[in-house]
Amino acid sequence: MSGDVDPVALEVRGLGFAYPDGHHALRNVSFTVATGERVAVLGPNGAGKTTLVLHLNGIHRARVGEVVVGGLRVQKDQLREIRRRVGIVFQDPDDQLFMPTVRDDVAFGPANLGLQGPELDDRVSEALAAVGMQGCEDRPPHHLSFGQRRRVAIATVLAMHPEILVLDEPTSNLDPAARRELSGILDSLSVTTLVITHDLPFALEMCPRSLVLDAGTVVADGATRDILADSELMAAHRLELPYGYIVPSRAW
Amino acid sequence: MSGGHGHAHGLYLPGQTRLHRLPPECKVAATLAFVLAVVATPREAFWVFAVDAGLVLAIARTGAVPLIKLLRRLSLEAPFVGFALFLPLVGDGRRIDVLGLSLSVAGLWGAWNILVKGTLGVAATVLLASTTTVPELLRGLDRLHAPRAFTAVAGFMVRYSEVITGDMRRMRIARQSRAYDPRWLWQGRALAASAGALFIRSYERGERVHLAMLSRGFTGGLPVIDDDRKPTARQWQQAAVVPVIAGLAAAIAWGLS
Is B175 exposed, middle or buried (0-12, 13-18, 19+ CB in 10 A)? Predict the structure, then answer.
């Protein structure tokens, strides 16, 4: 989004993480995401996807290995800048939207970054416009539909001008129309995006590249189309396409 | 989490009256000043309370709050009324007989004092809540420099009370769907378990909300997000009319007594 762009948006090197009970959530995870790339992270429940996400902005600190965002290593004294650069949209918009009105919620992130006055207002209206929710500034989040709340949740993160947008299960609980609107919105954004999802057709539609995470390790990293067509790989990692779905031979 | 229906709007009555449009900090400050003026009025000064009641009616009219709604919402003070009615029976000092009951004169004055001041105070706050949305109220309190921790906690409460009520409703439906219909105390185990589960769920939600806040740069202090719509001197003047009249009336009553 700025002038001198780092060609590598995100680099994860040998990342490992174990919960206090000894469960290894991540083992030696390494991958690189180029600036402007859109990558899906696939994998069964409990594969470590959310744990990985929480490492990207330093909520979990890397014990083994490291995470580098746009050339900046995720470590304690850089958390503010890291959290500006990496915007995470959590799965349940009710967790993400905690302020009394949409405006306050979208302004929360940029206000934490020190913005105020007209500059802050601009950020809010720009972010809401990006998700097609302008005009809802004064509404309380609980008066919005689920799909609208998901869009506002994305706006709360866009308002911080992130370099990497991370979406955790963005299509869960959406009806097909809301899901289509969401893919339209994501398509219109030029930011580097990581999409954690079980929705394989959505991954294929949005992300040319996918990572498959299982039992805390990256077991596949390649073109989404190839991964979805590899029935052996898919079966080995509990990935399944919806009934009757055939990977289109040429989607783009 | 079910779409945009069935949500409570609280006490707010949508409208476009002059009272609705007045900035919230003016309304909050005016309400507080009015209540203070009422409380400071000597209890013997009946005419002042009549003036105050007139003011309340005038505000209700300005805000297009139907009288019947106002009266119904006054039921909020029922517990205090109960207490006030108790006073004449137990008060000491000189007693008089009314309808065969021996009542304490001091108690009667005490009851009158609580009743009239309570009613006027509750009426004023009901009018404030009827013409100001909750987010606006919180914003008004913020601008009046109420402690940030207080407005933030109130904001979270408003935001999540509906989410948690929704959780509660879904758990109740899930219980009923499996033919749960407790008749005796010892059959209430599932209710207790639901309450426990609700607590844990809310606690976990709190943790997730905190994570989401940290992810957007929260470091312990909530930012004050203001939209720079400062009230004009004229708006402050308009808001001041009611409390100034009430205050003057109270002051005159003290002067006369």
Answer: middle
| CB-CB contact of A64 with A14 (8 Å) | yes
- DSSP code per residue over B128-166: HHHHS-HHHHHHHHHHTT--HHHHHHHHHHHHHHHHHHH
State both tokens at B139. 């914003």
Query: Residues of A near B (CB-CB distance < 8 A)?
Result: 54, 57, 59, 80, 83-84, 86-88, 90, 92, 94-101, 103-104, 107-109, 111-113, 116-118, 120-121, 138, 140-146, 148, 156-157, 160, 173
What number of CA atoms fall less than 13 Å from residue B185's CA on the CB side?
Answer: 0
Phi and psi, residue A75, nearest 5°: -150, 170
Instruction: Judge whether residue A201 has pLDDT over 80.
Output: yes
- Taking Cα atoms as reference points, which of A141, A129, A113, A131 lies closest to residue A170? A131
Q: How far apart are CA B93 and CA B113, in angstroms?
A: 17
Q: Of the candidates B4, B212, B223, which has its C-beta nearest A111's C-beta? A: B223
Q: Is pLDDT above 50 for A82?
A: yes
Lowest mean pLDDT of B32-41, B53-62, B188-197, B239-248, name the range.
B188-197
Q: Which helix (H) or strand (E) is A14 found in, with range?
A: strand A8-18
User: In this structure, what is the dihedral angle of CA atoms A220, A223, A228, A229, given to the nearest 10 degrees?
Assistant: -110
Q: What is the ipTM of this complex?
A: 0.79
Q: How far apart, in whole angstroms, are the C-alpha atoms of residue A10 and residue A7?
A: 9
Which three-class secondary structure state does DSSP give residue B41? coil
Enter the tokens of residue A99: 């302020």
Which among B71, B76, B48, B49 has a CA at the least distance from the CA of B60?
Answer: B71
CA distance B31 to B241: 11
Chain B residue numbers touching A146 (CB-CB < 8 A):
1-3
Mean pLDDT, residues A138-152 taken together: 91
pLDDT-derived band at B124 (thresholds 50, 70, 90) equals very high
